[in-house]
What we know:
Layout: H1 15-37, E1 41-44, E2 48-52, E3 55-58, E4 61-65, E5 68-72, E6 76-79, E7 90-113, E8 118-138, E9 155-162, E10 167-172, H2 181-203, H3 205-218, H4 222-235, E11 245-251, E12 268-270, E13 274-276, E14 278-284, E15 296-298, E16 303-306, E17 308-316, E18 321-324, E19 331-340, E20 342-348, H5 367-372, E21 390-395, E22 398-403, E23 407-427, E24 432-439, E25 441-443, E26 450-457, E27 463-474, E28 489-498, E29 503-510, E30 515-520, E31 529-533, E32 536-537, E33 544-546, E34 548-555, E35 559-568, E36 575-583, E37 589-596, E38 599-602, E39 606-607, E40 610-611, E41 619-627, E42 635-637, E43 642-648, E44 651-655, E45 659-665, E46 667-677, E47 682-690, E48 699-700, E49 703-708, E50 721-729, E51 735-746, E52 754-763
Antiparallel strand pairs: 1-4, 2-3, 3-6, 4-5, 7-8, 7-9, 9-10, 11-52, 12-13, 14-43, 15-16, 16-42, 17-34, 18-30, 19-23, 20-22, 20-36, 21-22, 23-29, 23-31, 24-28, 24-34, 25-30, 26-27, 26-29, 30-33, 31-32, 35-41, 36-42, 36-43, 37-38, 37-41, 39-40, 44-51, 45-51, 46-50, 46-52, 47-48, 47-51, 49-50
Amino acid sequence: MEKRVIFRDRQELQAADLTNLGEFTKTALDHIVKDGIQDQSGWVEFSIVKTGTAEVTVKPGRIYTGGQVYVSESDIVFDLLSELPAVNKKWVAIVAWGSEVETDTQPRDFLIDATTGATEPQAVPMQRLRRANINTIVGIEAAQPTKPLVPSGNVLLGWVLLNPTDVESISIENKTKLPQVARNALRLDELEEWRAIIGARVDSLAAEIAKLWEAIKQSGSKHLLQSLAIDVALLKEFTELEEGHSDYDADRFLDDLESEVEDVNYLARTEEGCRFANEAENETSIQLFNPINPDVSISGQGVLIPKYKEVKRFHVGPFNEELSISQYQFATHDCVQKTISRKRIRYGETLTVCTNVSWWRTGRYDPVENVFHKDGQTWEVVGGNPQARHSFVRLRRFWYDEYEETYWEHIVNKYTIDGQQIAQTFLNAQDGWITSIGLYFTRKGGTGNVEVLLTEVDDNGIPNVKKTIQRVTLNVEDIQVSADGTVETKVPIPHTFVSAGERYAIVLITGGDHYVAMALGTQYAQGTFFYTVDGAYQQGTFNKDMMFSLYYAEFERTRYVVDLQAMSLSGGITDIDIMAPMVIPQSCSLVFEVQVNGVWRPLEEVTSGNTVLFGLPPLLPFRAVFNGTTTVQPGLGLADSVLRYFRPRTTFKHISVDYNLRSPADTIKVVCLLENYYEDNHDFDCVIRINGGGQESEIAADAIIDRELEPPIDARSPDHKKIERTFVFEDLGGAESVRIVMNGSTTSALDTFHVGWRVHLAFTG
Length: 765
């Protein structure tokens, strides 16, 4: 203690001496708290519990602020019924602050006459209390409510989240909780133990870094390393170019541009490498085993999701005024409706991973076009780099490609709509499938249907009808009206997926004299009302919003199993190729399974290096397993899906196009990269045709040179090698063009190899 009161025998005792007993002690304790424990704000022991539907109770505790300790000694009850939000949610902060009050009032006698000893009683407080006051700070209601600001001087104890019916959740604010010395000591002990283990290793890093620096300095100057890097980058494309070469070219077999696929003798497949063509295959769309399956719902656009019930999740209101759509300019609006992006799953014995898969990342190819191409579909040319939104996984016997955006512009529907246009944007709070849009009209004209569009918005938050994701027509006779905007016109739409945290827009285009109900702009802070002038949106209107409601799908279960049409192929199946529009939110999964020997297995399972198709099953029961939540499930597009299953041949023949040489060549070398090549089971040869000659003029190699490289990415066994095989053709007498023919064979359709790339080099002299 910094100060003490001194008492002596037979010494006069004054009231100030007794007061100082407490003051000196208080001051010393304040200094201890401020200097050694906490000089800012914190709390201990408080807890917040739900004690009723809309009632919370704060249990006793203490707050520390500015070195002073304040106490709350009894339960504090808050009835939040009047604060419950009308539609959405709101946050309530529980805060505390300190104040000094005088309490414990008691009667005491006061001397009024020192001569007579007369006294007079008075009621006076006998205790000065540092009280912790507890109260609430209520936030603003919103679909995604923000927490209210806590003024300085208040200590935050916790948060209460309210929904329209009750207290949804309570969370304690541990950031402001005062740490205890004993717990800090335990944490320090743990840190010291960690330091003892790792410290020596960290301390030795300085010496190791010094050694590395010396090694780098001895390896050459920075300028030399940079020059070497530039040279290597320039020469990467031209590997194996010996002195005297006059021409060269390469094919990585990512497409058929350099393959003579129209030749009647052509018998190969280019799919990230040159592979064995199919001996037998079936191609169909994915179809339900039971077309009237009661557990699924299929939209008019052929998108399947599990069976659901419709719930209203979102509403903007109440009514404030009406707005005439016809007051805005009549125009022709060019619209583009995007479609659900494709995903592709390939699974099977022939899908050995090829070295050239890395070529997708070079930017020289459009991987979306090559990976997701489907005959007969029109692909919209888009700006930017499609590979930035395309991701792929290449595992042993399992390839997975996906376009990371839910809706894409590669396959679109274009149309024009005439009329006046208005739009309302909104922020979608969580993943889900919108099933209906509720609109509110106060008056309607005698004619004029309303085109209702659900669109994405641009980066600046403006609706974009060229990024429409759903469109329906509301017939004029189906429009319901009410002068006060209380009657809803419910517009069903094909179930449409919307992503959490993204903004979308409801766009209305009509030539009719219709009036929509509007709400005050202060009622909904997460969207903006737009209208068009001269075919372009004006700055959004911030003092009003269009009234609307959104209905979403709600599912009964989190897991659904949907049986699909079985696959059947005489002679057996080795590979399955699925390409379909799919929506798989982050919290969900969509797994395809096949049944082999009575056991259902997912299309990604590889055991002992083989797929479940290793036994060449001729019949495969097929199903899809949907895993999600009660609010969101995956979606599968049946209408535009492609299901292929096949078995490869045991021989292949690849014939190249004619390569015209820049100058006549006497010698030609053809270098082929063979992956998963097993000499005992496989055979591979190469011949050439020069100057337009046919099959009868094929020339065999004068020399064949093999060089074994590092193992393939997913070799079946140590016997399966990665071979660089060079074929040398000499004394050609001035070849002006060359066509390359590769022949391969295998002993079994279950054990195939592929050609990763082929390079040819031409020499003169």
